[in-house]
Design brief:
By secondary structure, this protein is of the alpha+beta class. It is built from two helices and six strands. The protein has a three-stranded mixed beta sheet, covered by helices on one side.
Length: 124
């Protein structure tokens, strides 16, 4: 289950951001996962509980948002949505496309608990 390794890497990034902002706790982690990323959202959710144990993110809510598959058409120049198994241009129907998104796993946002005496300039 490579989702555990993915989750551990994600949590390392979360912990760095939390430390940079002087957070006491991570309340929510929002990730965006494309259908071509190779990551199964259900398995990532299961792995999260294990990986987050004993970290600043233990007990934080993990929100997973699907990312759309988008392609750029080399023939007509349009950027359109596509199906994961049909990377065709939505404007002209051509198959000469380049994947723009849908294969990504992105840390979209974090909600942190920051103490009242946090350094100036930090958002709560």
């Amino acid at each position: 289950m490579h989702e555990l390794a993915v989750c551990q890497s994600l949590l390392e990034q979360v912990q760095r951001v939390a430390a940079d902002h002087g957070a006491e706790r991570v309340e929510r982690i929002r990730v965006r996962i494309g259908p071509l990323s190779g990551v199964e959202p259900e398995l990532l959710t299961s792995a999260y509980t294990i990986a987050a144990a004993g970290t600043i993110a233990e007990g934080a809510e993990l929100d997973i948002e699907p990312a759309p598959v988008r392609v750029h058409c080399i023939t007509c120049g349009a950027e359109t949505d596509a199906l994961p198994n049909r990377l065709l241009c939505g404007a002209c129907g051509d198959w000469h496309t380049r994947l723009v998104s849908g294969d990504d796993l992105l840390l979209a946002s974090l909600e942190l608990s920051v103490p009242d005496d946090a350094p100036e300039g930090l958002t709560r």
